[in-house]
Each structure stands twice: as C-alpha cells, then as structure tokens.
Design a protein that fits this description.
The protein is an alpha/beta fold. The chain has 13 helices and five strands.
C-alpha cells in the first residue's frame, strides 16, 4: 500500500516513472521548507466509505479553499495522524503551502483562504484525535457517519477491488474478530505501531462510532466538531454542503457539480445478515444517538 492508503502500483513505463520522480522531488522540497509552511484549518475525519472524498472535492470547488501541495496531485488527505506519524512533522507540513504563498493568494483573493485534509481513518484510529489537538488545536473537525451495515459492506467491497480481501462478505465478517484481536491494544501501547488489519479489515468495528466520537469530543470543543449523516449527504448534497460552508465560516457557494466521487454500486446485503448486524450494532447506535442528542434513523 502507498502512504496514502491505496494499493501500490509500480510505474508501468518511463514517463510514469519520471512523474513519480518529480512527485518525490516536490515532497522532498516540501520537507526542506516545512518550517515555512502552514497547517490545516479543517479536518474531515471519516468515516471510511461515508462520503469523505465527495465532501473534500466539493470543498475544493469553493473559491476560498485551496488544495494540498502540490496541487497537481489532487490529494485529499495525508494519513499523517494515523499510519504516517512516524514520517515526522516536516513530512506532514510538506503537504501544505508556504505561509508566503498563502498570504499572496489571500491578497489576490481579497480575503482569508482555508486549507484542510480528509483522511477517513482518523475517526477510528486511537491516537488521531490527540495528535490533531496537539498539531492543530484551532482546526475545525467534520465527521460523516454512514449506516454501519452499509459502511461495512462498502468497505469490504472496496478492499476486494483493491485486491487486499479475498473472502466473501459473510466470511470476512466471521474472520474479523480474529483479525482484530489485540490490534487496538497494540496501537494504544505502541504509538509507532501500524496495523494493516485494524485499518483495512475492520468492517464492522469501524462502524462502532461512539468510541471515536468520544475521543474527538475530548480533544476538541463540541462547537468545533460537526457530525453529519452520510445518508443526508447522498439525499441532499446541496443542503449538507451549505451546512459545511456555514460551519467553516465560508461564504455561500454553488459548485459546478455535486456528484458523488468514488461512488460504486454494490450488490445488496442479504436481509437476514443485515438484521443480525444491526442487532449487534444497536448498542453503539444508541450510544451515538445519546452523544449527539438526535436519532440517526439507522435501526
């Protein structure tokens, strides 16, 4: 896997190898100038297969939002607060523009500009919230929560497409407890530890949102954390986009398009399996609803 959570594919020809070399050179330049660079104004923390890519891309259409560096990579997130933390702060800051470049852009724009990132593993990773608080205490945080059964199935289907999962859905769910056994404890005990299973095979457990929300609520004031339902994003993207702009203090804006990014159509979950999963997840759904003070309408 690449540092950004995708399956690594070696360059197929010399032209692609050259482009990869240019990207590596820009990242090195970014690290060498890290002390001159800014950090994130907002963090989209998840959930995996919950619409984070779409929201991140829509925000980049706003005239007062700028992409990560270099812009040509069109990268939505860094995975620094979870699997890339060992790469160091200079590596993280290499993804952001210099303060001078930002100031010049703001002068041209005639007002402040925002820069952020979207990494869907942040909600689930046990260290991400406290690391974010230490690194960017004034950032605003956005979480998208999807019906955990649909999220689990979408997560599994993506891993099958990427070639890192070969089990059918029901068998992958059966294997999940053994795959994850002790992994969270290892992550907590060793901040440098990276768990492939915890990130990629946690189909059901990543849908237990209450634990992750509690971590982020402990790290940030509640008025700096916006929690949305993925289903609302899919049903009325303009309304959700508008709510996010208001939360980020951005002017109203009508993007060129609000189509879904990274959306796929999967076979439906077997109804009996869906009912069993919802029953197993019901205590966490109730805990989420208690934390947020509203119904998630998943049960």
């Amino acid at each position: 896997m690449t540092p950004y959570g995708a399956r690594y594919v070696p360059p197929a020809n010399r032209a692609r190898a050259l482009r990869a070399g240019v990207r590596d050179g820009l990242r090195t330049f970014g690290r060498l100038t890290a002390g001159l660079r800014t950090g994130p104004d907002y963090l989209i923390i998840g959930t995996k297969r919950g619409g984070t890519t779409s929201l991140a891309r829509w925000l980049l259409q706003h005239p007062d939002v700028r992409p990560l560096f270099p812009a040509r990579e069109t990268r939505k997130g860094t995975y620094y607060l979870d699997v890339n933390y060992h790469r160091g702060l200079a590596w993280y800051r290499s993804h952001f523009p210099t303060r001078l470049a930002r100031e010049l852009a703001q002068q041209r724009q005639g007002g402040p500009l925002l820069i952020g990132e979207a990494t869907p593993y942040y909600l689930y990773h046990p260290h991400a919230a406290i690391r974010a608080r230490q690194l960017a205490p004034r950032a605003k945080v956005i979480a998208l929560l999807r019906n955990p059964v649909d999220r689990a199935h979408g997560h599994w289907a993506e891993r099958v497409r990427q070639g890192v999962e070969r089990l059918p859905f029901d068998q992958a769910l059966t294997a999940e407890p053994d795959r994850l056994a002790g992994e969270e404890a290892r992550l907590v005990a060793d901040p440098a530890y990276v768990s492939f299973a915890h990130q990629h095979h946690s189909y059901v457990d990543q849908g237990r949102y209450a634990r992750g929300l509690e971590r982020w609520f402990a790290a940030y004031p509640r008025d700096r954390v916006l929690v949305l339902r993925s289903e609302d994003l899919y049903a009325d993207p303009a309304a959700v986009y508008g709510a996010v702009l208001g939360f980020l203090d951005l002017d109203p804006h009508v993007p060129d398009e609000l189509s879904g990014w990274n959306r796929t159509t999967n076979d439906p979950v077997d109804p009996a399996l869906r009912e069993r999963l919802l029953a197993a997840l019901d205590p966490d759904i109730l805990a989420v609803e208690a934390l947020l003070g509203r119904s998630m309408d998943w049960s």
